[in-house]
Each structure stands twice: as structure tokens, then as C-alpha cells.
Amino acid sequence: MLRILFALLFFTSVLPAQTALSFRPILDGRVLRSGADNAAGHDGAVAGARRVEVLRWYLSDIRFLQDGTTVFTPAKRHHLLDLEAPAGLNLQLATPPGLNYDEVSFTLGVDSLTAASGAFGGDLDPTRGMYWTWRSGYINFKLEGTDPECPVRQNRFQFHVGGFQGPFASQREVTLKVSPAAIVPVYLNLDRFFKTVNVKKQYQVMSPNEASAKMADLLAELFSAERQSS
Q: May I ask which residue range the UniProt record assigns to the signal sequence (predicted)?
């Protein structure tokens, strides 16, 4: 019996822990949910609400750091976050037990070497709707929906931010100060996005250019470890 108990204790001691990066997009001051009616009244116009219908992005090369030094890097390099996926925007990572860290770092988008190598499987499979077959490259961030202020058919906005070649490469590094926890919240401030991007004038980005590069800069700034006001 003691041998069995010892074996069980040893086995559980070497099992990896689980750390979840819980991404929480904020629109109109509330967290968007998978399968929900993700609409927001703005400027008091609840009846004509802005609505987010597609929200997806790639994360690459996640790192946990302590005092500026990398202490753990998960084996899987690329992850697709999708608001409408069954797991929503919760990214489960196997981490060493007792891992100490004070920062989490990641690349927003797919790294240039991978992007230049063509299509892959898994999260990088082109059937996920995040690959430009016409130019052999990944869309790093996709945001689609409707807004009554968009002066186009069906009031649709479409922002597909991608590209891996200069001068319009759209991969961006993000580093956040965090505290170790089983669930680490990461907020995405879409309210700030729509305050910065005037959908009356800019309602579509569909290829790498100066506008998409500037939008990539903005997107990287929207992530935070604490909930922020718009």
C-alpha cells in the first residue's frame, strides 16, 4: 500500500500544471461571449447597435518571464483564438508546477518564417479562414461586423490585418505584467479600437499596406492584463 501511495504521489508531482490565458474582448464596457448577441449601443443609439460577428487572431511564441528572463516556453508555437470556437477565447497551456513569472509575452500574428513557408495544418490550416490564398500569407487579426455608421452595403466593416514582408509586416510583440494564477485574464479593448478607427471613413482593410501596418500597431496596444476604460 505504501509503495502504491508513493507511486501516486510521485506521479502527480510530475504532472504539468494548467495555466489558462483567458482573453476577454471588451465592447461597450462588457465582455463579448461566444454564441452571444455581441452588439453594443454607442452614442445612445441602442437600436442601431454596432455588432461584432467575427473576431479571430493568431498568437505565436508565448513566453513566461521572470525579471525579464524567459522561464518557460510552451511547446506549441501557434494558436488561433476564435470568439465562436467551442473553447471561446480561453487558451489552456501545460506549464511546470510552481512556475514563477511576472510577465507573459507573445507575438500577435504568425511569424514571418512560418508565413513565408506556405500553409500548414492544425490552427494554421487554411480552412480556418485565416489564410490569403491569393497572396500566400496569413491574416493575423480578423474583425468583422456591422455598424450603422458604415456608409457601405449592409453597413459592414471588415478588418483583415496581415502581411509578413516589410515595410508592411503586421506581426507585433506584446508583453504584459501579470501575476501567476490558474487563470490569467488578458483584456482586448475594442472600445478603444472603435474610438480610434472612424468607421465612417475607414471600414475596410483587406491587404497589407500602410493602413494595415498602423492598425497592427493599434491592435498590439489594445491588450492589457487589467481592465481599462476606453
A: 1-19
